Write a sequence for this structure.
């Protein structure tokens, strides 16, 4: 399938024919941001779900206006849907992979009926607990639900309609959160850059420092750091690339 072809329900329907009553497409956004939450969208389809709404694509292939226009149609089309978030402090405490899992569990916990199977974008199952590594409760009254069986598929966000829909729901929900948080911290430009490492965001961090919405455990590039004192050696100011620190288990987003 070409990158611009419309995603279909072919894979989802094969899982439904295998005996799964409901199948959830799952995708994440915000993995590579420097500030704000990581967000996971879930869109559930069933045996009687019709073809996807016209114009559906992976969220990265759509303009912001096109994503927003699709949201009402996606909500009407899906058998169920939800978006979950993990906040910057949770990313710092757990690492990015476990924070993704937490956000995904929060989304699944919102569904009235859990899906029998999950179709997850990518080649790595970050939604299921590794053996002996269940998520901590983090002070929540009820630990988010366990994940149903997961099928991973590379480029599912471009080929599988439920996953593409989940990506649009997650992206629009996270963008709206960052626009609201921009009002509290306007100098970082989050209304435009959504917490990613855009030049104006890095310049604002260098000038104003980081805030509670930044992932404090993540390294920042030299461009986002205050100027070095006069006479400092270059080696004193060099920083690793943007991204999580050692042991965080992140992949590029």
């Amino acid at each position: 399938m070409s990158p611009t072809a419309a995603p279909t329900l072919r894979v989802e329907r094969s899982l439904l024919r295998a005996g799964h009553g409901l199948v959830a497409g799952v995708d994440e956004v915000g993995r590579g941001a420097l500030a704000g939450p990581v967000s996971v969208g879930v869109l559930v389809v069933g045996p009687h779900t019709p073809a996807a709404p016209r114009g559906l694509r992976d969220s990265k292939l759509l303009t912001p206006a096109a994503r927003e226009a699709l949201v009402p149609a996606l909500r009407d089309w899906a058998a169920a849907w939800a978006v979950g978030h993990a906040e910057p402090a949770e990313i710092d405490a757990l690492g990015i992979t476990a924070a993704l899992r937490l956000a995904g569990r929060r989304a699944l916990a919102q569904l009235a009926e859990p899906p029998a199977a999950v179709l997850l974008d990518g080649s790595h199952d970050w939604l299921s607990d590794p053996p002996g590594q269940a998520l901590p409760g983090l002070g929540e009254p009820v630990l988010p639900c366990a994940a149903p069986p997961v099928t991973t598929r590379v480029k599912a966000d471009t080929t599988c309609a439920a996953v593409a829909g989940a990506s649009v729901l997650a992206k629009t929900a996270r963008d709206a959160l960052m626009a609201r948080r921009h009002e509290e911290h306007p100098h970082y430009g989050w209304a435009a850059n959504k917490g990613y490492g855009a030049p104006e965001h890095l310049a604002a961090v260098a000038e104003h420092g980081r805030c509670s919405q930044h992932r404090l455990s993540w390294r920042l590039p030299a461009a986002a750091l205050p100027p070095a004192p006069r006479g400092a050696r270059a080696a004193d100011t060099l920083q690793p690339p943007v991204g999580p620190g050692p042991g965080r288990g992140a992949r590029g987003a």
Q: What stands out?
A: The two ends are 22 Å apart (CA to CA). Confidence is low (pLDDT under 50) at residues 231-242, 245-253. The longest helix spans residues 161-184.
